[in-house]
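Dear colleague,

As promised, here are the two records you asked about, laid out in our usual form so they can be pasted straight into your sheet.

NAME FIELD: protein one
SEQUENCE, THEN STRUCTURE:
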Amino acid sequence: MGIAGSRRVFATALCGLVLGGLAVVVAPSAYASCAAPPVPSPHRFTGTVIAVEDDGSLATVRADDGRVVTVLGGPGAPERNMSSSIDRSYTVGGHYEFHPSNNKDPYQDNICTATHLVEEPRRAPVEPSDDLVPAALSTDQSAGQTSSALLVGAVAALVVMAGGAVWLVRVKRMRRPVSHM
């Protein structure tokens, strides 16, 4: 196989790797680890998140019926220091319809349940100021995972392309005829 043939094979393999990597990276992270679409829970309730811990995955909720309950948006108790790809995080002040997988406090929840934000938190009016501090961003759901995955995928694609370029240069130098003077 000549240089042109090896370039074609390399280009085809590189395109396949890049397209495959993009397909994995661009896939919605919320459904990446969930086996089925979310199903409404028989234990559903609505409430407002009044406090969060453990990066937002442990919520203290004032249910609309007046109870104050705990909702775990991850695999277990926060003292276990565990996290998974299906962790849900909550925003203080957000009003949610919770669809937990169990019927008692603490309620178990994750991104594979039908829990959803009903109303965004109300923000206090912003007074004019010379400070250039951006407003707080919502941490609801799993917003950061997709952007992190995109960054990792882009870096991986660049590494593969750089490796391919180095390989092509080496192949070209090996095939170059030696001139004798």
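NAME FIELD: protein two
SEQUENCE, THEN STRUCTURE:
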Amino acid sequence: MVNLTSEPVPTLSQSTDEATILTMSIHVEGWTGENQNPEKFDRHAARILDVAHEAHQAGAIFSFELSSQFATSSGAKNVVDELLSLGHAVEVHADVGGVGTPSFEDLAKQLSTKFIQVQNLGIDPILVSGICSRGPFVEAAISAGYGMTTGVVEYCLTSLDAIYHPEGWNVDECPSPAECHGDPGFSLSKKATPWSVFSSADWTVPDVDGGFLIVVGESGSTVKCLSEDDAAVTGCQYQNEDIKEYTHLAESYVLHDEQSDDHRCCVFSTTISIGLPPPEGFISNLVDSLSFLVDNGRAQWLSPRQIYEKMN
């Protein structure tokens, strides 16, 4: 992780008319071949729906971001319909662009295909995650019809022109998404405040006329890794310490928001990959841990489309 700032977390609260936005990306991924194996798909779908029901009952709106494997499975439409009936969002997890320096044409084609796969399930996606690349990922995402992204990791910095590289950062030490998957080292203010861009070459610089919204939040780490000092060494397990850290981080965003004059601040964005499921009750406890913020009107759950519309 690149450390760009030691900006302190605010500790005093001020009244505000705008609640901090909460959003959770669920990356629906990792079950290779499920679109050719209905039994495998059904097991994956059951885990997704368990999370969706827990989140709904606790009062949260989650963004379920589908891999191509899931989206092209024969049972996907029924799962999507159930997710929507619970008030959740359905978006795209692309997982593209991480090999070499793909061209605009290649990235745009892949992202358009994934857009159509989800569109065929009755959804016009607004968000795509998993697009960090050395290639022109911003321009390709705009061309494919997307309006925003989350899950920005350090590898996204590889597309930048050299003049925009963070001080002390070496692109040669960032060879692949797997080896460069930490957070990009932004300050709390930058992580919490979405901004619009047009170009992959300078995407860290806000463009008031930009056509693509960057939402960073706590990218580079999934929820189950929040309490790990060195996740690469120890691995990550869902545990109560993760919920405590999640609550602490959320409150830091809310406190920052209550001191900020920026109308685009703040969005607390986090990620879970499924993959392996959280233990029963984990999602309920995670959402409930923020009830003291939501019930007091200091934070609110919004879908990606609601966030996009609020920021534009």
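A couple of things worth noting about protein two: DSSP finds eleven helices and nine strands in the chain. Confidence is low (pLDDT under 50) at residues 1-16.

Best,
R.
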